[in-house]
Amino acid sequence: MIHLRSVQKSYARGEQRVLACAVDRLDIAAGEQVALIGRSGTGKTTLLHILAGILRPDQGEIEVAGARLDGMSESARDRHRGQHIGMVYQTFNLLQPFTALENVLLGALFGRGAGHDAKRRAEALLQQVGLGERMHHRPGQLSVGQVQRVAICRALVNDPELILMDEPLGNQDRATGGQVLDLLLDIARNGGKTVVMVTHDPESAKRMQRTVDLATLRSDLGAAAAASHGGRA
Ligand SMILES: Nc1ncnc2c1ncn2[C@@H]1O[C@H](COP(=O)(O)OP(=O)(O)OP(=O)(O)O)[C@@H](O)[C@H]1O
Ligand SMILES: [Mg+2]
């Protein structure tokens, strides 16, 4: 499902380059559920964005859901994401003028989930994460944890093969977070879906099949580049 080789993404900052993410090698099989861990600033979000095709790295080979993303145009990557990937962003990225239900349906509009039963699926998902009574509220009228659960529903509405989640439970109380994780893992295991979930919570990580620490994926090249900008690795 996921194969990365010698991937690096850096940003220019004045004369310097800041290495945001370096992965020598990463392979995730179809149907695996993986927790992605690592200290703040080590490139977890950058890596998810590379996997989603939102960011293009400076170098490296990226194969995701049967397609090579390196060398693909931005619009082709956008289409590929709509067809195969559901993403929960660290900052949620809901559209403020729209209600919870409309935000979830917008996920279907840009993917393969468009169609007559999208609304039914969106409503069912919102019910399942405990937002049955909040479907017609706008993000500004919801709590942060509720907004996060809407973002999770939006990622799931297309029934994607690959679910990428950037700390999807970071704003949930333990009981709610546990229920939402149960739902996610249920959907993933019953549907044979691949999940990559960034988490700082060891309990959540333990429930996944495998934990990948980003620090262990960095190539020698990456470590050298990280050292050259102040040893922040
Ligand atoms: N647009 C940008 N321009 C310059 N540097 C950036 C940019 N985006 C990210 N970085 C740098 O890249 C590194 C990796 O950032 P990233 O957001 O991927 O970290 P993270 O592991 O997700 O951290 P956190 O756990 O805090 O979310 C950081 O050191 C960050 O400062
Ligand atoms: Mg992050």
How is this fold's topology laid out?
Layout: E1 2-13, E2 16-28, E3 33-37, H1 44-52, E4 59-64, E5 67-68, H2 74-84, E6 85-88, H3 100-109, H4 118-128, H5 144-156, E7 162-166, H6 174-191, E8 194-198, H7 202-207, E9 210-213, H8 220-228
Helix pairs in contact: 3-4, 3-5
Bound molecules: adenosine-5'-triphosphate and magnesium ion.
Which features characterize this protein?
233 residues; alpha/beta; Rossmann fold; four-stranded antiparallel beta sheet; 37% helix; globular; binds adenosine-5'-triphosphate; binds magnesium ion
Tell me about this structure:
Helix 3 (100-109) packs across helix 4 (118-128) and helix 3 (100-109) packs parallel to helix 5 (144-156). A hairpin with a 2-residue loop joins strand 1 (2-13) and strand 2. The protein has eight helices and nine strands. Helix content is 37%, strand content 24%. The chain has a five-stranded parallel beta sheet. A four-stranded antiparallel beta sheet has the order 2-1-4-5. By secondary structure, the protein is an alpha/beta fold. The mean pLDDT is 90. It binds adenosine-5'-triphosphate (ATP) and magnesium ion. Magnesium ion binds next to helix 1. The site of adenosine-5'-triphosphate has 13 residues, from strand 1, strand 2 and helix 1.
